[in-house]
Please model this.
Amino acid sequence: MSCAIIRLESFSLTSLTQRYHSIHDVAYDTTYSESELKCLSGSEGVAEVVGKVVSTKDYALLDRMLKVVEKKEKCKFDMRSCEKLLQMLVRSRSQNALSSVRVAFVNKILSGLSSTQEPDEELYNMILSAVDKFGHDNITSGISAVLDDEDRLKSQTLAIYLSRAHFILTLNKQLETGSGYLDKTTGNLTSSGASKLGDGSDEINSAIFMMIEEHGWEEMTSVVEATLSFMHRKVSANSANKTISVLLHRAELIWKLYKDHSSCGFIQSSIIDIANDFTLGLVRGSTASIIFKGEQQKIFVKTICCIMEHGSSDSLNRFGKWAIRTDDTLSALLTAITTHSTELEYDAQVLLRDILNKSLVQCSTSYSGWNNPLRDDRTRDPSLHIQRVLNDHPNLPRMVDGDGRITLHYAAASSSSLDSAERARPETIEHILKAYPEGASARDPVTGLYPFMLAAGNDTENSVSTTYSLLLVNPSLVVGSIIQEDEHTNSRKRKRSESMG
Model:
């Protein structure tokens, strides 16, 4: 069997490698034309042939080119080539425009889009025009090829998902029925290999609200839920997702959604998620320059409210350690909270009380970056942050929270923690007692214990001295506690005797 080697001297290939492969590809086929050989040279050659097809309306050449594109991955269309060919077919005024051949062309063109190319708005709009021209049922295979390409899905990002969702929802509106594409696309997002949310978080927010305005909340519910879930899942996948900028934009998105859809279950869950995820961003590095300026400061303060209400124990501890990292950080935090209380409609004193109780009394400034001089023993006072807060807001230790507890209850309980990193220091107890000495005689309604009892919960280096200092304020509590315990024991004995009788 003879074969003809077709030489390519007349073609300007971009490299010797492309020249070799082109010769190899056609060594066994003498039917390739000059245009088809150009396609074999790669994307630039394909784009050149597409231009020729469009300008001449040469459907025979289009047919031959599509056969080459179907066989060779390097000959696949880029977005603009795909768009130009679809536009030619959509605008065709031929009486045979709806023939099976033209429909087949549309499906092959869409299937020929390179896996490295993700459709943009212009290409999606042209696909919608093709649906209008040829009918959705006739070009389903082509649309599915675009949306289901495995290589394309591996690099799917949140921005790509939203772009696809916008196209699908627009298509559904055009069809006046569901197409089934959205559920599958959302499922693909769940299994997406992408780990980084990207730097365009503000563009993500804008896209979501634009889509809600255009398609309505009911149609967008599943898209928004998938987006918020993706944002939360990917926090642990890539450190870039923990940057304070990304987290602030996510918090802003949640607050805006909550304003209009507060009863939505998945938005309420997202509030809990951001409360815990946000503190991961705070501990990554210095963020004061970002969160304490402009509108971001308001978002930050609202997120603090969320952390205090929904944050886990770990999140509250992370927040506390961040807040006392430097004296400037704590000062800026206190200023931000008092500045925006009226506009954001929260009680600044209540928020400061919760921060003090849940995040600050458990922390120590011994190893922080405060500018205060060291003590004579070359250590730093561990309660500098407590002093700073109480100097500005001396009434906080007197405030009772929703559980009926005061600051001293939190501090005393923390002082006996087995984890030294979460243990209130004796100096902290001392300053809280000084601000509100009557608190030493207040029984904790949650545990039923007095502060000195809470401090004696574990045998730690702090527990003995802290218990003693608390008891000195009101020694009669010991006698009172013994009498109450005796009365409680006698009551149980009487009840037992009566039941036996």
Remarks:
- DSSP finds 27 helices and no strands in the chain.
- Confidence is low (pLDDT under 50) at residues 1-30, 486-490.
